[in-house]
């Protein structure tokens, strides 16, 4: 008999179960170390290198190299933040890192803009959501394991790892507190594995590790999107001193990132950051400016993580916090500061004047690709998705296979496939 993987403090044997039982290949390695390795070596993670985070690689307003983040580098940075915060709170560090590495795997080409297009395309088969697509990749699409009956089981991660990577633990329309919520974490045809991974979990509640992942994601992208905007020359920090500009930033924050927040408390949140000695009040691309900006990002990440660690420890003590034994507590001041940073990046980077037409073109590319592939299918589909299409039991499942193919593309691959397959004379 092969040696069993060692137990993990704070986690039950049920947490370490896999959907399909399989022997360990290397004695002494924990189940969560294996999970981390599987995500790290996955093709889905590699593809994130070709998916834009917020600033398109090669685009910038000034004559210096912006070197912006991609979805891959964002995921790696999120994983570093999550691993350290999780470990400080008593989680298994490999488990939290796995969740952070996996959290964006399902994002399609062109990010949230691509999500919007594919959600419309997939309306008749349950819509599209990047987080639900991530679970689909982890549990079905990423080729690694198969059940005895031949069904693909994706990376066959542990129950705890899949749960930790599930940011929105409900299907579309299934959030009890908000049935109309736009975000959801599982498609109808993936419910069997969802019910398995959520066995015994409180309905609609994130496990503690997923909460750590979720906050680490917020911290990483709020801070780094602003940093990338400064590097690219799209954001002048002095605009944050203008009353008119501040009003627009706060209105956006209250609408999208901190619902219900008053403008006065959002102003206090921004001013707390502007008053810090390390805040970058200017940026000119010099080595000194780059170093100062990097220090500011480090200070912000530390500020947000230490606040959460301190508040959570104050509530739950110094023991090991795992699974459903605690809630991550983030002080309101830091949540509002984070929300303001998100709003700054949204207003000055994402909503740049030239982006409206670009986003429309990107949505048209994915929509036209979907229509063309659906009309030609199974021709035009990659072998993996062709098999899903030909074995699909109904039209909804066939459409889902087409959407799976498109969601797997990088930005450049989507443009190249569109150029090859879609006839000339587009009307958009």
UniProtKB/TrEMBL annotation:
Domain of life where this protein originates: Bacteria
Domain HD: 71-222
Keyword Hydrolase: yes
SUPFAM superfamilies per the UniProt record, alphabetical: HD-domain/PDEase-like
One Gene Ontology biological process: dGTP catabolic process
One MF term in the entry's GO annotations: dGTPase activity
Pfam families (alphabetical): HD, HD_assoc
SMART domains to which the protein is assigned, alphabetical: HDc
InterPro entries per the UniProt record, alphabetical: dGTPase (IPR006261), dGTPase-like (IPR050135), dNTPase_2 (IPR023023), HD/PDEase_dom (IPR003607), HD_domain (IPR006674), PHydrolase_assoc_dom (IPR026875)
Keywords: Hydrolase
Record family assignment: Belongs to the dGTPase family. Type 2 subfamily.
NCBIfam families associated with the record: dGTP_triPase (TIGR01353), PRK03007.1 (NF002829)
HAMAP family from the UniProt entry: dGTPase_type2 (MF_01212)
Protein's UniProt name: Deoxyguanosinetriphosphate triphosphohydrolase-like protein
Taxonomic lineage from the root: Bacteria, Bacillati, Actinomycetota, Actinomycetes, Kitasatosporales
Gene: dgt
């Amino acid at each position: 008999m092969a040696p069993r993987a060692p137990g993990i403090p704070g986690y039950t044997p049920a947490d370490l179960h896999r959907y399909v039982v399989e022997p360990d290949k290397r004695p002494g390695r924990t189940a969560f170390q294996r999970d981390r390795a599987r995500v790290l070596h996955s093709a889905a993670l590699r593809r994130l290198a070709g998916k834009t985070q917020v600033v398109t690689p090669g685009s910038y307003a000034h004559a210096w190299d912006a070197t912006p983040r991609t979805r891959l580098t964002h995921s790696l940075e999120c994983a570093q933040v999550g691993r350290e915060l999780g470990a400080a709170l008593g989680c298994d560090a490999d488990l939290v890192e796995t969740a952070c590495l996996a959290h964006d795997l399902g994002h399609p080409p062109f990010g949230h803009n691509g999500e919007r297009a594919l959600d419309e395309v997939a309306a008749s088969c349950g819509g599209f959501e990047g987080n639900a697509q991530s679970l689909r990749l982890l549990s079905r699409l990423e080729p690694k394991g198969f059940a005895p009956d031949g069904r693909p089981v994706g990376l066959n991660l542990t129950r705890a790892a899949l749960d930790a990577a599930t940011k929105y633990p409900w299907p579309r329309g299934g959030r009890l507190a908000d049935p109309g919520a736009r975000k959801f974490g599982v498609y109808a045809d993936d419910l069997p594995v969802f019910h398995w991974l959520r066995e015994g979990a409180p309905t609609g509640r994130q496990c503690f590790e997923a909460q750590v992942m979720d906050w680490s994601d917020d911290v990483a992208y709020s801070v780094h999107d602003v940093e990338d905007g400064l590097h690219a020359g799209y954001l002048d920090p002095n605009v944050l001193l203008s009353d008119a500009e501040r009003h627009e930033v706060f209105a956006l924050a209250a609408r999208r990132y901190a619902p219900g927040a008053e403008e006065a408390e959002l102003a206090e949140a921004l001013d707390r950051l502007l008053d810090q000695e390390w805040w970058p009040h200017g940026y000119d691309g010099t080595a000194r400016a780059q170093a100062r900006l990097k220090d500011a990002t480090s200070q912000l990440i530390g500020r947000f993580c230490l606040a959460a660690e301190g508040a959570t420890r104050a509530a739950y003590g110094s023991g090991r916090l795992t699974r459903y034994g605690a809630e991550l507590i983030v002080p309101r001041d830091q949540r509002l500061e984070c929300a303001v940073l998100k709003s700054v990046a949204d207003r000055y980077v994402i909503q740049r004047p030239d982006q409206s037409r670009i986003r429309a073109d990107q949505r048209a590319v994915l929509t036209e690709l979907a229509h063309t592939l659906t009309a030609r299918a199974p021709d035009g589909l990659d072998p993996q998705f062709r098999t899903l299409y030909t074995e699909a039991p109904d039209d909804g499942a066939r459409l889902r296979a087409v959407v799976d193919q498109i969601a797997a593309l990088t930005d450049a691959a989507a443009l190249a496939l569109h150029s090859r397959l879609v006839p000339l004379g587009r009307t958009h």
